[in-house]
Amino acid sequence: MGAAGRKVARTVETTRTSEGEGAAPAAAAPADRPRLGRPPLTERRKAATRLEIAREAVRLFADQGVNGTTADDIAAAVGISQRTLWRYTPSKELCVRPLLTYALDAATELMRSWPRDRPLAEAVASTRSPANEEPAATDTDALRDLVRLTRTEPGLRTVWLQVHHDAEPVFAAVIAERTGHHPDDLEPRVQATVLNGALRVAVEEWAWSAHTAEATPARAIARALGVAQGGLPG
User: Fold this and answer.
1) Do 85 and 56 contact (CB within 8 A), yes or no?
2) Which of 56, 119, 137, 212 has its CA 20 to 30 A from that of 75?
3) Rounded CA gap, 50 and 89, in Å?
4) 3-state secondary structure of 205
């Protein structure tokens, strides 16, 4: 084989290797584009794996702390290799992100389809889970444990705050679409901030409170939205 032939062969081999090693990240790209209806089976399986990783990470973090938990520990608990784990998350702290985005994604989905003659607060308060599927009781317990951990684990607190920071412009875009504003206008940005803050504080109140009155996140959210709708005191 001549020099040109060897160069082509090396190029083909490099391409095959690149495609094999990067298959998981490349397949995630279509998820960034809007879809109608249920996502494809492959995407649902990936989402289920991410949630399982998040559940096991929270369980281990609660038992032995973030510093005491390794990526190998999390991978072994899920039944995958560490290499596969890194295809789903760039750090062990970010393993928990799907548990935090689960309800926020559901709220956004419901707000986008909510009737314009009904308040958005009703949509948020009635949010259950994506695709109208009830979250498992274990997910609710895991979420409570995770939010409690944000008080003492700086890395998890950073993820918690970043998730809400990322949700704010998404909420602003939904509000702007309903009100005829541009997402960068002051009104939808302030309204999104109020909504986002109410959701964050409500879930923290539910997770951190020793009282049983806020037995579910939904009750805490409904109360928080009522306070937000009342506005600032005179």
Assistant:
1) no
2) 137
3) 8
4) helix
